[in-house]
Design goal:
Elements (H helix, E strand, L loop, with lengths): L1 H36 L6 E2 L8 H10 L3 E4 L14 E5 L5 E2 L4 E6 L6 E3 L8 H10 L3 E8 L4 E9 L2 E2 L5 E3 L3 E8 L5 E3 L8 H10 L3 E10 L7 E5 L5 E3 L3 E9 L6
Parallel strand pairs: 2-5, 7-11, 13-16
Antiparallel strand pairs: 1-4, 3-5, 6-10, 8-9, 8-11, 12-15, 14-16
């Protein structure tokens, strides 16, 4: 009986020793070896790489114990120099471990080609949104007489009409020919003779015309500031927005006796 008890104690002692050694090994592995192997607690702050040129990346990141990978999908920003950084992942300021790879998107050397969308008969606001979605830039807005107000009548690239589907460089400027909502209306030029300058201006603008060149003539027969001549003359048919030149009287200077 005593031998049996002795054997049990010996077995239990061995088990305790084995368990102790096992716990000791686990402690050493998780608390000392693993943190040391994985650089536990050691982090690097990701720098801001925007606008860095491709040639500058390797040396700059190596000094900070980081590396990089260029993503296959490049972007394009017309204002940015070619082969400069547009995007990065992780973002600037992120805490990462040493030797972490930073994924870089570069600006393409040449603008990619996009197909010209059809903007004709679209409202101006919608046309501008479509251009932005295609990576194109709205250029000059050219208003022409047409009953459709702010409706795109034509789309132009470098002064020439461009058809839907034509390939152009991303970032290109597209001029839009837009209706002014007035159409090709004609009206009779009003009679301005004898009016003062402010009255004539009010009538011209109210008639859908525009004031053209203003000249002054000396006279002693009509009050100062009176319209004495106009071109085109009254009664002539003119298109909306046409210019009307006027001549305004000013008093003749008295000579010294």
């Amino acid at each position: 009986m005593s031998n049996f008890k002795t054997d049990i104690k010996r077995i239990l002692t061995h088990i305790l020793i084995i368990l102790g050694l096992l716990f000791a090994l686990l402690f050493l592995f998780f608390e000392i070896f693993l943190p040391s192997y994985t650089h536990h607690g050691e982090t690097v702050t990701v720098p801001d790489l925007e606008n860095f040129h491709y040639d500058e990346l390797e040396e700059y990141l190596e000094e900070r114990k980081l590396s990089y990978v260029i993503t296959p999908d490049s972007g394009f920003v017309k204002e940015a120099p070619p082969l400069t950084v547009l995007k990065q992942n992780p973002r600037p300021g992120a805490k990462v471990k040493e030797d972490r790879k930073i994924y870089i998107t570069l600006n393409a050397e040449n603008a990619p080609l996009v197909k010209m969308p059809n903007l004709k008969n679209s409202p101006l606001k919608n046309a501008q949104e479509v251009l932005a979605n295609y990576g194109l830039v709205r250029g000059e807005i050219i208003y022409v007489p047409d009953i459709g107000i702010n409706v795109v009548l034509d789309q132009k690239y470098r002064g020439r009409s461009i058809k839907e589907g034509f390939e152009i460089a991303k970032g290109s400027k597209i001029d839009l020919v837009v209706g002014d909502g007035l159409g090709k209306q004609t009206l009779a030029i009003p009679n301005l003779i004898g009016m003062d300058e402010s009255e004539a201006e009010f009538l011209i603008v109210g008639s859908g015309l525009r004031i053209g060149k203003i000249s002054y003539v000396t006279t002693d027969s009509v009050p100062k500031g009176t319209i004495v001549k106009q071109l085109p003359p009254s009664g002539i048919e003119a298109k909306t927005g046409e210019l009307v030149d006027v001549w305004i009287s000013e008093l003749e200077k008295e000579s010294n006796l």
